[in-house]
Backbone:
């Protein structure tokens, strides 16, 4: 996902984004595993009163050291946020290509079912309900799948983000992955806040999903010798599954914010680049395609710059 380039900036380490995306999931996972250990895992059946007793005996210095340790772990894991998103998108190693291919086939079957719901029955005039259902199916298709079948990813999250990349600015001739880093600094405060908030929710739910999965697997190992207590491992796995579904919804919302950003602020790019404003939609698409080719491949634009008129010079001296 090339649009994630801004996700790992150093400034984010001291922001609310870091607390939401990095620190809170790390603390939740660490406290869950510590509770199991304090309760007696893996050597004895769990007794949560032991965990409560251990927690109550911790001094202020020990509690501070524990949370500082979790802070250090969260900081060390922060650069892995983009790889985690890409992992859940379905960018997997070649050695698991069979699994990737199976996931793509499965997603394409789902795509075909959604696409079939966009068609209206022929022969008779469609009812308002049929038109509404077809319209909702078309919206879902555009939000959850890229326009070309060849771009299909093996996961729901991957396809939602591929749709965001593929469709943001597409109708204007922009290639979002190369145009977005240039457009983002020009966004107004309301649109920037919307984009950032939705991106934070996406990253936080991805991190929570991965944390839940890892905690679930770790608790299986910890609780396997304790008998029926191993069923407690289902709790973080359920959280991981719910968080993944929320991440897909967040990716759809993030894609909508990207499209809104191009709709509202794309003309500001021309002024920043000193490019003449296009007069028609066809001219806009042609200019945007040339700019994207230049950014992507370094093709010469042959551009004539259009500078704003110079301000009034200094007045006459006394």
Residues:
């Amino acid at each position: 996902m090339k649009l994630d380039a801004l996700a790992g900036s150093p400034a984010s380490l001291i922001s609310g984004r870091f607390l939401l995306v990095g620190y809170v999931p790390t603390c939740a996972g660490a406290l869950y595993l510590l509770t199991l250990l304090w309760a007696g895992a893996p050597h004895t059946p769990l007794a949560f009163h032991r965990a409560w007793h251990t927690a109550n005996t911790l001094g202020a210095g020990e509690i501070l050291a524990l949370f500082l340790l979790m802070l250090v772990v969260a900081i060390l894991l922060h650069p892995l946020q983009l790889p985690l998103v890409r992992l859940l998108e379905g960018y997997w190693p070649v050695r698991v290509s069979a699994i990737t291919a199976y996931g793509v086939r499965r997603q394409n079957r789902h795509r075909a079912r959604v696409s079939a719901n966009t068609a209206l029955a022929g022969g008779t005039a469609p009812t308002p309900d049929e038109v509404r259902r077809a319209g909702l199916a078309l919206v879902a298709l555009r939000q959850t799948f890229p326009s070309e079948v060849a771009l299909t990813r093996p996961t729901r999250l991957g396809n939602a983000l591929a749709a965001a990349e593929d469709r943001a600015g597409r109708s204007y001739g922009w290639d979002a992955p190369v145009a977005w880093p240039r457009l983002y600094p020009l966004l107004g405060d309301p649109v920037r806040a919307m984009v950032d908030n939705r991106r934070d929710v996406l990253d936080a739910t991805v991190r929570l999903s991965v944390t839940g999965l890892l905690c679930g697997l770790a608790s299986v190992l910890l609780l396997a010798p304790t008998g029926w207590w191993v069923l407690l491992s289902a709790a973080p796995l359920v959280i991981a599954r719910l968080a993944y579904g929320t991440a897909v919804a967040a990716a759809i919302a993030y894609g909508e914010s990207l499209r809104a950003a191009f709709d509202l602020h794309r003309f500001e790019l021309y002024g920043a680049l000193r490019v003449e404003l296009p007069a028609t939609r066809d001219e806009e698409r042609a200019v945007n395609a040339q700019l994207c080719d230049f950014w992507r491949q370094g093709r010469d634009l042959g551009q004539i710059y259009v500078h704003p008129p110079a301000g009034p010079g200094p007045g006459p001296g006394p």
Summary: Residues 94-152 form one domain. Confidence is low (pLDDT under 50) at residues 5-13.
